[in-house]
Amino acid sequence: MGTAVVHYTAAAVTDRGRKRPSNEDAFGFSVENGVYVVCDGMGGAAAGEIASSLAVDEVLRALNGRAKPDNHAAPVPELAGQAIFAANQAIFSRSQRNQKLSGMGTTLVGLIVEESRTWVVNIGDSRCYRLRGRRLEQLTEDHSLVEEQVRMGRMTRTEAQRSPLKNVITRALGTQNRITPDIFEFEAQPNDLFLLCSDGLTRELSDALIESLLSVDLALEELCARLVNAAKKAGGHDNITCLLVRAAS
Ligand code: CA
Questions:
Q1: Residue 45: pLDDT above 90?
Q2: What is the CATH number of the domain that holds 117?
Q3: What is d(CA 55, CA 76) in angstroms, rounded to the nearest whole number?
Q4: 53, part of any domain
Q5: What tens digit of pLDDT does each residue of 217-236 get?
Q6: How many domains is the chain built from?
C-alpha cells in the first residue's frame, strides 16, 4: 500500500528578526495528529499576533484526534476546509467586535499527514517547500498581487521582486466573511523534507540558498537555526518562521 513512509519528525524556530518590534508570526504542530501550521499575522502588532495565534490554535483544535484508521472521520480535505472556516470565523468575529483589531488577518500554510498521504493547505504568501533528494521545490502558489501577475504573464519574476506592490496579498484568513484555501494532496516519500515558512525567510534568501542550507545531514533543530540565522544575516527585515517536517520509513 503506497510507499513506506510511516512516521514524521518536526522542529520549528520563530524569530522577531532584526527590524520589527514584535513577532506577529505563529506556528504550531502535533506530530501525533499529523498537523503542522505556520501563520504570518497582519494588522499591527497586537492585532497581527492575535490573528496568527488564533488561526494556529483553531486549526490544531479542529484537526485534533481525527481519523484513527478504524473510525469514520470525514476525509482530510473536508476537515481541513472546516478548520479553515472555523479559524476564519474566529478571527473575523473578533475583529468585528473590537475596533482596535479591525482588519486583522493572517496567512496560513499547513501540512496534514497520514502515513504517506499528505495535504497542503494554503492562504496568502507563506510557503510550503519540499526537499526531495537535493532538489527544493515550492509546492504552494503565493496569493499575492505580483505572483498572480507573474502567473498571468503580465510581469516578470524580476519585476515582481522589485515591485512596490510585492507586499499586497490577495487572500488572507480573517479579513472577510468567506475564504477559499488551496488544498491539494500528494504522496510523501521517505526522507522528504518539508519546509513551512513565513515570507521573512523567503524575502531574504533565494530558493537556491535555502536548498543548499537544507542539503546537509543535521538535526532538524539545527537546520531551522541555520535558515533563521542566514535570514537575519541577510537583513532580518521581517519576522522569520521555519517549521521543518521530515518523513521517515
Ligand atoms: Ca511577514
A1: no
A2: 3.60.40.10
A3: 18
A4: yes
A5: 999 999 999 999 999 999 99
A6: 1
* Domain housing 179: 7-248
Spacing, Cα 16 to ligand 1 middle (Å) = 10
Contacts of residue 205, Cβ cutoff 8 Å, sequence gap at least 6: 213, 227, 230, 231, 234
Q: Is 182 inside any structural domain?
A: yes
Would residue 137 count as lying in a domain?
yes
CA of 183 to the centre of ligand 1 (A): 21
CA of 45 to the centre of ligand 1 (A): 12
Distance 91 CA to ligand 1 centre (A): 18
If you measure from the C-alpha of residue 202 to the centroid of ligand 1, how many angstroms do you get, rounded to a whole number? 10
Is residue 243 packed enough to be buried (19+ CB in 10 Å), middle (13-18) or exposed (0-12)?
A: buried
Residue 107 C-alpha cell reads as 496567512
In a domain, 239, yes or no: yes
> What 8-state DSSP symbol labels residue 104?
-
pLDDT of residue 72: 62
Nearest partner of 11 among 31, 26, 25, judged by Cα: 31
Are 130 and 190 within 8 A, CB to CB? no
Instruction: Quote the CA–CA distance of 209 and 197 in Å, as a whole number.
Output: 14
Burial pattern 167-181, b for ≥16 Cβ within 10 A else e, equals: eebebbbbbeeebeb
How much distance in Å is there from the Cα of 50 to the middle of ligand 1? 14
| The C-alpha cell that represents 198 in the structure block | 513565513
